[in-house]
Amino acid sequence: MAASGSKISIYGAILANVGIAISKFIAGSYTGSSAMLSEGIHSLVDSTNGLLLLLGIKKSQRPADKSHPFGYGMEIYFWSFVVAIMIFALGGGIAIYEGIHHILEPVEVSNIKINYIVLGVAILLEGASLVVALKQFQKNNGKYGLIKSMRRSKDSSTFTVIIEDLGAMVGLVVALLGLFIGDFFEIAIADGVASVIIGLILTAMAWFLAVETKGLLLGESMDQDSVALLEGVLKEHTHVTEHGLIRSVHFGPDGVMVGVDVHFDDKYTLEQIEQEIVQIEKDFKAKVPAVKYVFIEIKEDVTE
């Protein structure tokens, strides 16, 4: 389900960004605007990133095998991290370089109305892409605010698209303001300054995405709400007299491994314990569908 929702938002972002990139490059080349060229590079990078995310989703859905017994779910985290590097190096780096170059050697922007039209259309298309991504994201993460939801989410492909679209919207507004200030106040370097600001925005975006994806790559646990649900399951099994800390790790957006030490009633027979363990595993998976692997170890002392 998560992968399907991710694909919808990614396809929408790719279609929007390809069209926007072409129009920006044409406008930037024709008018000489560095901000427009930077925005064109930004949209081109976003289009490529969308393809990388689709590749990550496809690879992450491969079934488990001997070399990867818990599946390939973490592939999507790796490719999301690659996307963060792409945004930083190609998007932010080139935009800052172009901006500094045009500050040192200002170029008068001609036929500025073309840039206004292209940016206006781009804002509409990016806005549509952002709305689609937000709707898909909020289906599963609408309980919290946007930033908190992104930090809690384990579906890096979806929040990557949102971060890209948000950065694109802010970048478009900055480019529009840079062109307007340069045209209205006749400040030649305004266009180059806008390009540098766009590059800094992309760099900040990439940093946030890299930090969030790094945590997932290193193996994050379930959120505390999900852990509380599993603790509730153990409390419902009255013959579980004690249990240790519930340990969990994500192997992808919809693949979680859970381990816990438990102590059963001393009057329980081995056969009863086996039946109880099987039922606990079923209850865990029913309560939190993302749980795919459960390891329960019987111990006399479960203190941590």
Indicate the topology.
Layout lengths: L1 H30 L2 H27 L14 H30 L7 H30 L4 H7 L3 H29 L5 H29 L5 H13 L3 E4 L3 E4 L5 E9 L5 H18 L3 E8 L6
Parallel strand pairs: 3-4
Antiparallel strand pairs: 1-3, 2-3
Helix pairs in contact: 1-2, 1-4, 1-6, 2-3, 2-6, 2-7, 3-7, 4-6, 6-7, 8-9
CATH architecture label name of the largest domain: Up-down Bundle
Order of helices and strands: HHHHHHHHEEEHE
Oligomer: single chain
* Portion in beta strands: 5-15%
Rg, Cα atoms, Å: 25 Å
Regions with little confidence, pLDDT below 50 for 5+ residues: none
Description:
With 304 residues, the protein is of the alpha+beta class. The chain has two domains: 2-218, Cation efflux protein transmembrane domain (Alpha-lytic protease prodomain-like); 224-298, Alpha-Beta Plaits. The chain is built from nine helices and four strands, in the order ααααααααβββαβ. It has helices spanning 2-31, 34-60, 75-104, 112-141, 146-152, 156-184, 190-218, 224-236, 270-287, and strands at 240-243, 247-250, 256-264, 291-298. Strands 1, 2, 3 and 4 form a four-stranded mixed β-sheet that branches. Strand 3 (256-264), helix 9 (270-287) and strand 4 (291-298) form a beta-alpha-beta unit. The longest helix has 30 residues, at 2-31. The chain is elongated. The protein starts with a helix and ends in a 6-residue tail after the last strand.
